Amino acid sequence: MNFRPTFSKEINYELNKCFRCSFCRSQCPIYQSKLNETWNARGRMLMVQLLRNGTITLDDNVLHRIYTCALCKSCEEICPGLVKVTDIIRETRRQLAEAKLGPLPEHMQMSENISKTGNVLSKQRPPELQEAIDNLPQRSHTIIFMGCVAQYVYPKQLITLFKIMREVGLEFTVLRDETCCGNFLNELGLREEFLKALAENAERLRRLRVEKIITLCPMCYNTFKHDLPELAPELKVAVQHSTQFLEEVLRNQILKPTRPLKMKLTYKDPCHLGRYAKIYDEPRNILELIGAETVEPERSREFSRCCGGTIRIPYSDLRNSLSNRFFEDVLKMKVDGVVTACPSCFHNLYSTAPYDIRGVFDIVEIVGYATGIIDRLEELTGLLE
Ligand code: SF4
Ligand code: SF4
Asked: Mean pLDDT, to the nearest integer, of 329-344?
């Protein structure tokens, strides 16, 4: 296939900075599964250079190496050249999409779902969530941006957050006609589609005169925190991730734990909350404030493992091998469960957890349970007696 990307001065500068030291081998989760340099950040950088220079042509092998990058940023944490690997991959994907050579058919299906139904999963809102939404005011300066995965697959996470916000006396609503934030479209190189989705949500925020957004999903958080001000600088909207909000109300004792958590937990840093948004302390503080006993994984914070959630469609086998490696670490820690703060990581871990892992939990639900706001954690049967 004929594909020769041309890059801006900035991207060329980044690409040329890679001096092939291969330090990224110690971090790249895809390399660690495949054990072949072509799947490493270093191999990807070389392939993109060779495509740019016209030394190699695009084929399926190259294409898969470009789309299996989880954009986890793990390599960037160790890279001595500070190469912006994810910017290079994203820009290469953007040019592939422009040339109609990417993304993959499965990705296009997700994009079509958004254009047709407003959500990536093409699902209807569950009735229990719709009922909770119907009870919210029509307008408020604070909204919870619900996101696709929590809204259509794990509504209990949102309903619990609604209850917590009510408990602390915070008035809020949601965008009843919210559509996908579009972050993953951007990750796939579908830049125009991403900007369209963002512009639609910006218009809704403008209409409701929103001043503050709270998100459950770290991808939504990054979109509104970093991309919205570029697109609509006149909208002065404060953006908070739910862990920042929860830490604040627990630290200030507006919300207090009432129920002891009789279990040992470990916290999984989501890539988009940790490496992208640098929110590492708040989730840990929350667990401490509710009195949970925690064990820090050997690889945590900047060096935490990617669970592979971003590539599960269409690379589910590869995703499984990434999740399995994460759970191997967890099993060594002898904990009762894993807590995360991202509905996508939650879904990924929940659907791949081995039998020996007794629970995968969302941090909002853990807080809801510890503060007596919800009575039951489905996944915890037997652990709390
Ligand atoms: S660590 Fe950075 S400079 Fe070294 S090979 Fe990897 S991407 Fe290139
Ligand atoms: S962003 Fe993650 S998956 Fe992509 S090359 Fe870097 S470490 Fe590997």
From this structure: 94
Ligand 2 centroid, distance to 74 Cα (angstroms): 6
Q: Which CATH architecture has domain 255-380?
A: Up-down Bundle (1.20)
Average pLDDT of the segment spanning 312-317: 91
Q: Given the CA of residue 25, which atom of ligand 1 is nearest to it?
A: 6
Q: Where are the domains of the chain?
A: 9-101, 107-247, 255-380
The pLDDT score that the predictor gives to residue 358 is 78
Instruction: Identify which of 46, 75, 299, 307 to mutate to test ligand 2's pocket (most ligand atoms within 8 A of the CB).
Output: 75
Q: Do 255-380 and 107-247 have the same topology in CATH?
A: yes
List, in order, residues 6 or more apart from 43 with CB less than 8 Å away. Answer: 31, 36, 37, 65
pTM value surpassing 0.85 = yes
Sign of CA dihedral 157, 162, 168, 174: positive
**How crowded is residue 90: how many other Cβ atoms within 10 Å of its Cβ?**
18
User: Does the pLDDT of residue 271 top 60, yes or no?
Assistant: yes
> Fold for domain 107-247?
Glutathione S-transferase Yfyf (Class Pi); Chain A, domain 2 (1.20.1050)
Kindly report the number of other CB atoms within 10 A of residue 101's CB atom.
14
Q: What confidence category does residue 385 fall into, taking pLDDT thresholds of 50, 70 and 90? A: very low
For range 129-146, the mean pLDDT: 97
pLDDT at 383: 52
Nearest CA owner, ligand 1 atom 3: 18
